[in-house]
Each structure stands twice: as structure tokens, then as C-alpha cells.
Amino acid sequence: MLFLNTSSCIFNCLRKQTDSEDADELVGLSEAKAKSVPPSIGQKVRKFKHGFRPSGRNKHGKPHMTHKIIKKGNNSKTSFISLEMAEARRKKLQELVKRNDNSTCAECCKKNPEWGSYNIGVFICTSCAGFHRNLGSHISKVKSIILDNWDADQVNTMEEVGNLKAKAKYEVHMPACYRRPCPTDPDVLKEQFVRAKYEREEFIHVDKQVYTTGFMEGYLWKRGKEDGRFQQRKFVLSESDGTLKYYVKESHKEPKAKIEISKLNMTFCPKKVGNPNGAQLTYVRDGSTRNIFVYSSSGSAIVDWYMAIRSVKLNKLRIAYPGTGELELSQFLTRDFLKEGWMFKTGPRSSDAYKWRWFTLDDRKLMYLEDPLDPYPKGEIFLGYHADGFAVKKGVPPGMKEQGFGFTLRTRDRIFLFGVQKDDDRIEWMKVLQSVIERPLTPQDNSMAANLVRKRSTIRHFIY
Ligand SMILES: [Zn+2]
């Protein structure tokens, strides 16, 4: 506790210091370089003939005298000393960022961060620097640690705080159900993590964690099963019921669907849905996977739904596996798809033509659809263990027609021929499918396989 109090004291002092400072007149230059973050009106940003240039550098990227140095006079000795000091501070930052705790982004853990928030005291990657800047400079002030000039006080903040102490303060009560973003995650997850952490301070104030209460009610835009149009629908998540329900009309007493949380998965898919806050809910109904596509009008709302579903799942797992740690259990809350994309696929007969299908690899299930947003896949292929006869091979068997860059998937019952348009894509598909069939089956996989075998005689499109 002593550590926390001390660090919190340092934070408060530092924040007061930096807040009262006049913003460096050149800060906006480097901020403007943060990914997809144009400088806003009114910011002190100098536009050079050749575009935005970081402070302290000329158009060739070499250090030049800043305004501050020039203001001190034309004494070349003074200027030289100032330049030397600026370089020394930049060098110091380079040393600090190499330290273990600072060598990955404080938000998404990307290696070798190139930016810093000099009032918060964290090292961050280019993408997260953009999200920090979106918070506004009253919350976070960002600078490049490579290109910008830093004041001695700002460097001291980075040294005294750093990623570890900042985490101890801003993530002190981060719940186990909350998914920390990784570099490849969709922007909505990364940005909302940064906003939750510094803007809403959700991980400091537990009462702000609306997603851990076991109940959530609200509206999401849901894609219609028949007409494909997105309409607002009321969703209700209840931990006591163990269900997620949605209603077509507010006045309806009976929900249109009631989904068991234990069978529900949620993943973000902004590109597929065509909305930055787009997500996909999936569950198995009558032996077939059902896809529901939704989005919300705000990033925080869709992330709250996602964390709320994870929270309910975690609480269920805690009860089912009392001896298992939260960190381990949190690995089993939601799954991202291993790979998705278009491929050619043939039918079971050698005379069948290749058809262009959308494929989704969800753990051990390879599903194919006519349209990526179809409510049900046309078929689902269970991927077993390689020792049981499952294999992936480049090319197609002799005498069979190859479409584009072809490869073959062998299951117990059937050989599937696929084709893609680029060799790189074929390599990626083969690699990911191979990694799945090399993984021994878990007890859960076995029960799923048994279920599929049982259903095979009645549900034609399940193949094992
Ligand atoms: Zn990052």
C-alpha cells in the first residue's frame, strides 16, 4: 500500500506540474504524425512546405535549433550546449524505453514503443499514441521519443513513473474478465481500453465497471436473418438466467431468441459488418452454428457488452472450477476466429465444379458460407487430430482439377479440395489448419466430435 500511495503522490505532483506548463509549441507537430490523427483546428502546429515535421528536426531529419534556443540569443556557444542537452535527453529516453517494463507498449504490449505520454509517464506504440491523443491533451500529452525534443522535467516524469508504476495506478482494479488488447486487435478494443483506463478511470473506480454487475440491457443494431437489414433490437443479458435474449419489439413479452451464455461466443468483426463497432455472436442451435451480426452506435457500448458476456462466463467458470485461477479461466471466455477468407471449394464428386465460398475457422470448426454475413453456414467441417487420419497437403490428388493455388484437406470421411488466388494465402491457410490438426483433442473437443458424429446421420452438412 505504501508503494501505491507513494506512486499516487508522484502522479498527482507530476500531473499538476505538467498541467500548469504551457504546452510545448511544437508538440502538435509530432502528434500530427501519430497514425490517422490529423492536427485539430486551433492546435499550435506549424505546416511546413513539405508537410508536418517533428520538432527539433529540419526537412532532412537532422536536428536544428528550436525557437527556444534561438530566443536565448545568437550566442553560438549557448546554442551548441542546448543542442547537446537535447540530444542527451533523447538518449536518456532511448535508455529508459529499453528497460524491461517499458520495452512494450503500456496499452497493447507491442514491442519497441516509439512514443511517450509525458504527463502520465508511459511509453506507447504509434497506434496507441493516436488513441491517447484522441483523449485530449488535458488527459494525455504525447510526444515521439525518437523525433521530438523533450524538456528535462518531461524526461524525469518518464523515469520516475514508467509503464510498471502507471499500471499499478491505472489498472489497480482491472477485472479478470476484461480483455487487454493486443497489437492486432480491432481499433475499437484498443481505443476503448485507453479510454476506460485514463478517461473513465474504470480500473480505479470499481463502481464504473457496468459490465461486472451480471445484468445488462440496451439496444444494438442487429442484422435481419431474412432481409439482411440492420434494425435496432433490445438485448438483455442476465447472469441469474444464464442467458442473452433479444426482442423484436419493446412491447413484446417473449424474446425472439434466448441464448445460453455457456454456448455463446462473441468476437469483433468491423470489416465484415462494415462498422467500426461491428461484432459477431455465434452459438450452436439444433446442431448448426447460428451467426448474429450486430453493431452499436458507440465504441464503449459494444465493448461493454463484450466484457459483460465475458464477466458472466467467468463467474460460471469460477463456480464450475473452484480450484482454477482466474487468469487461466479468463483464457476460455471468448474466442477470436483463427482465420477467415474466400476460397474455392469443390463438391464431393470429381465432376463437381469449384465454388467461391467464405470460410471461417473457429477453433476446430471450419465453416463455409455463400455470404460472410449468412445466418447459417452451408457446411461445417470438424477438424480432428492428425493421428486419426486428418491431413493437409499442398496441391490436389492426381487426376483432380486444381483451381488457382490448390490444397487438399483430408478428414475421416472425405477429401476436400480448396483453391486460393495467391500462394501466400495458401501457405497461411495450410499453416493454420495444420496447427489445429496437430493439437490433441481436449475432453471438450471429444464431446463436440461425439455430438457431431451422432448428428451426422440427420444433419447432412456436418462432416466429420
Ligand atoms: Zn500500443
Distance between the termini: 56 Å
Mean pLDDT: 83
Question: What's the story with the biggest beta sheet?
Answer: 8 strands, mixed
Shape field? globular
Main β-sheet, spatial strand arrangement: 15-16-17-11-12-13-14-18
Bound molecules: zinc ion
What class would the helix/strand composition place it in? Answer: alpha+beta
Q: Percent of residues in beta strands? A: 15-25%
Low-confidence stretches: 1-59, 61-73, 453-464
How many helix segments?
A: 13
- Using only CA atoms, what is the Rg? 27 Å
Strands, count: 18
GO cellular component, one term: cytoplasm
Subcellular location: Cytoplasm
Pfam families: ArfGap (PF01412), PH (PF00169)
Protein name: Arf-GAP with dual PH domain-containing protein 1
List the helices and strands and how they pair.
Layout: H1 2-20, H2 27-33, H3 67-71, H4 76-98, E1 115-117, E2 122-124, H5 126-134, E3 142-144, H6 152-160, H7 162-170, H8 187-199, E4 215-223, E5 230-238, E6 243-247, E7 257-260, E8 265-268, H9 270-273, E9 278-285, E10 288-295, H10 299-320, H11 326-329, E11 339-345, E12 355-362, E13 365-369, E14 379-382, E15 391-394, E16 405-410, E17 415-420, H12 423-437, H13 443-456, E18 462-463
Parallel strand pairs: 14-18
Antiparallel strand pairs: 1-2, 1-3, 4-5, 4-10, 5-6, 6-7, 8-9, 9-10, 11-12, 11-17, 12-13, 13-14, 15-16, 16-17
Bound molecules: zinc ion (ZN).
Subcellular location: Cytoplasm
GO molecular function, one term: phosphatidylinositol bisphosphate binding
Domain PH: 213-314, 336-438
